[in-house]
């Protein structure tokens, strides 16, 4: 029963949108970290922003 449910949910999830959110989240964190040196507090807030971007899909 659970295998059929997982398959049905996997078919209905918009995977392109989830993938795009993951890429944008990584860019939110990665680009500032590569371009400048950041302190730990700003890095933590960037990770939180990336989690919000992924969760908003």
Query: Which radius of gyration do the C-alpha atoms yield?
Result: 16 Å
Largest sheet: none
In percent terms, what proportion of residues is strand? under 5%
Question: What sequence of helices (H) and strands (E) makes up the elements?
Answer: HHH
In angstroms, what separates the terminal alpha carbons?
A: 27 Å
Would you identify the regions where 5 or more consecutive residues have pLDDT less than 50? none
What is the helix content? Answer: over 70%
Number of helices: 3
The oligomeric state is: single chain
Summary keywords:
mainly alpha, 57 residues
How does the SSE layout of this entry go?
Layout: H1 2-12, H2 15-35, H3 40-55
Helix pairs in contact: 2-3
Account of the protein in words:
The protein is mainly alpha-helical. The chain is about 85% helix and about 0% strand. The protein contains three helices and no strands.
Structure in a nutshell:
This protein is mostly helical and 57 residues long. The protein has helices at residues 2-12, 15-35, 40-55.
């Amino acid at each position: 029963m659970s295998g059929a449910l997982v398959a049905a949910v996997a078919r209905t999830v918009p995977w392109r949108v989830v993938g795009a959110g993951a890429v944008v989240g990584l860019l939110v964190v990665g680009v500032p970290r590569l371009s400048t040196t950041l302190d730990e507090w700003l890095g933590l807030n960037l990770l939180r922003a990336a989690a919000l971007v992924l969760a908003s899909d």
